[in-house]
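Please predict the structure of the following assembly.
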Amino acid sequence: MDTNTLIFLALLLPVLAMFGNMAFAKQDNLRDGFTFVCAVLTFGAVLGVLANLGNSTSQEIVLLEMLPGLQIALQVEPLGLMFALVASGLWIVTHIYGLGYMRGNNEKHHARFFACFSVAISAAIGIAFSANLLTLFLFYEVLTVSTYPLVAHKGTPEAIRGARTYLGVLIGTSIALFLTAIIWTYTLAGTLDFVPGGILQGKVEGLLVPILLGLFAFGIGKAALMPFHRWLPAAMVAPTPVSALLHAVAVVKAGVFTMLKVGVYTFGIDFLADTGASDWLMWIAAYTILASSIVAYQQDNLKRRLAYSTVSQLSYVTLGLALATQMGVMGGALQIAMHAMGKITLFMCAGAIYVATHKSNISQMKGLGRSMPFTYIAFLIGALSIIGLPPLGGSWSKWLLMVGAADADHQIMIGVLMASSLLSLSYLLPVVAQGFFSSSPDNPYNGIKEAPAFCYIPPVFTAIGCVILFLYAGTLVEFLTPMLGVPQ
Amino acid sequence: MATASETPHIALTLRDHLPILQVLVPLCTAPLIVLLGDRRIAWGLAFLAAVLSLVVSFLLLMQVMDGSFISYHLGGWAPPIGIEYRIDAANAFVLLLISLTATLVLPFALRSVADEIPARSHTLFYACFTLVLTGLLGVVATGDAFNVFVFLEISSLATYVLVSQGLYRDKRALSAAYDYLIMGTIGATFFVIGIGFLYMTTGTLNMADMAERLVGQGDNRTVQAAFAFIVVGMGLKVAIYPLHLWLPAAYNYAPSAVTVFLAATSTKAAMYVLLRFMFSVFQPEFVFDTNLLLWILAPFALLAMFAASLIAVFQTNFKRMLAYSSIAQIGYMLLGISLFSVTGLSATMVHLFNHGITKAALFMAVGALVLRSGNTFYDRIEGMGRVMPLTGAAVVLGGLSLIGVPGTAGFISKWVLVQAAFEADLWWVALLIVASSLLAVIYMWRVIEVLYLHTPHPEAIHKEAPLSMVIPMWIAAGACVWFGIDTSLTMGAANTAAIGLMGGTDGMALTPTVGGLLGTGH
């Protein structure tokens, strides 16, 4: 099949899954099986796009013209393809996990849940393949709106409050700042296409460059740059599969992915480096990295701790962009994949613990590791990858970011990255240590067993993924290099 | 003018008579409904008239999309002596909106009116409805200033009656109708005083002729007074904040079907008249150089956007909230005018249409909710989104369009408006526009939470609205999405209209390039 058909399939199969969920709302097994097939086929379609990449020049597919000169158009480029692979690949894993979690936990409204989930995946793939900012913005908002019901899923007052924060921050920043930035860019440059090297060079100068960058950086609320990070912890009221796939992978990665796209294809790294417009952003990102690590350290609720850890890790990508060096941007791009694999493992483990014990606070999880060895070993591997230790994927992105910081002559950022690693060590490893080593004589968890297989096999699987990513990071870097616009 | 009068008066094909048919069909239907006196036939005739109007307005728009205009001489009397109907992109676009809404509302009204109004009043209700349609179409189609006033009164008087029909559900509809009557009459009187002054100065009532004679009269105090009277008079009809006081009560207490129709069309027709007088009768230079209208309009527009939105946030009744939201949205249209550029006017024109269909969808959802839960206070419609999934989803779509989320019609309006602000180097206005849409997020999301995140009220009927309501509602909601993605029709027409309006007097030039009964020219 040619690339165009495959892209359409990747976009439409999740939508088909949504209709399937609505049609077979009452037949549990048929519905979930159908979604699984759709998920596998979606991943297959994205793989097909990857396979085709070598033998066809990437061309733009114009769907329709929304406004004169402004098209809804799709295009394949390495960074987007990587994001699409991550999102669709992990969808399969999360779907299996979600089945175990939702059934094991007796959650309600399965059909609505999986329907919204599918739409969100479609939107993420749309973001990945967007050929211009307008298309990207369209899918960005679809992603926001389609995940709102997932956050509010439980319908408790707490869930409603969380969902309100979630929607308020994401829609608010995107309409007030992101949209303004997009229209401003269009007025300045006359186009919104993603062009290697950027479109703003020579169109805007002086103080306006950092202001415009600021509108983008804060407007892309999904990147959770402080002070617009509040939605992420608030979204933790959602069932864990949502936190795992959407709030560790699809939604947040859509944010930082957009950030990279804007930096690389709208501003251009060289333009940012020449004007120094992103220096301030570097400091904000550094602050976010450290501050949210410290907040994470203080959380007792495991999911909230992971959420703040996510806020911190997302800013690695923003930092990589703000360094405005090729190594920095490459490190940021790798971080998208590496952090996705690591963090989804951690979230799925947290969910598995919740299903097995209905405990969500770390202080209540003493000695659990011996009852749930698979879950805890997977958690350990994921945690080590987040911290950035070899032989796990996370070490490469951190390495490249540090090289990028050195290239940009901002040695202090190396210190920030190292401090952050130490902080994540101190808030992630105690969870595991407590699980295995500390036990009270009246351990209440003696009768506890592993969660259902559907719940603990997927995190084991993604934990192995962290190791594989370490081994193949070189291939990934090679694959992403065209993004930087340098001759190979 | 010369070419038009030289050609002999020959009735050509039906196509050439479209401009008058636009008004004549509903005008003749109204008395026919009363004469036949049967309520089933009444609905059928009204619907037929609406469908025919829709066909006519669509054909008209197709003819003028290229920027030309049609000049139709009533009874063959050439203007400025005779009455002229003049169709160009600007009014053809509004005609389409009005007749489209009428066609959608009538099937919806069948069930809604049966529920809210006793059967004995139905015949007269549909007769009045047809008269409102006549009046609105006439106001927009005509090129004669006094004719505007006449049609304005036809539509207004019939509207007052329609609003008062809400009395069977809530007696306050009577006082709402009375308020509207007083305010509307003041507005119409101001308008006719303005026309009088213009007639005094120019000796003509034909708008195009008037425009020619007003050239260079910028310092004439009578003309300036006329301008002030017309703007304030029409401002009352448009419900420019703070001349909006009649609107919330009228929208809130009118029968559901009437609210749908009014919200989508009546302020829009008045807005069109305002535009036509500002840009075509008075020249843009007159408006913007000598009168500093920018500095008067823009603050009121911004005030409407923020004050009315803020009031909407604190409402506890869905229908009333939407009424305040309408006032806020009128602010966007005014802002587009005050930016004084083709892009700005395009924004006004396209928002006129987009907001029309958005509010049509939302008010139809209100009607469906009224049918099932009795009223639309938030504590009463709790959880209704769960038992009425189609209605609930329409509210979500309409709400997204109101907020301006991409993929909806509202987004297009907002995009063009913000772009116009940037082009005018008014970046702070651009920021205010997006900031005010955040208020829309708040007031719409309150409703969506109420509809979905609570258990349904026990006294409400837990059933989806009948198909006769759901289908029109979904056509309107679907249009919100369609025109958010494919904008060739809306933006094309709005852009042509804006260019024509910015052309000022030239846009109304009296010399059609093609002679004949009908002139077509630039």
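The longest strand of chain B covers residues 69-73. Residues 1-9, 509-522 of chain B have pLDDT under 50 and may be disordered.
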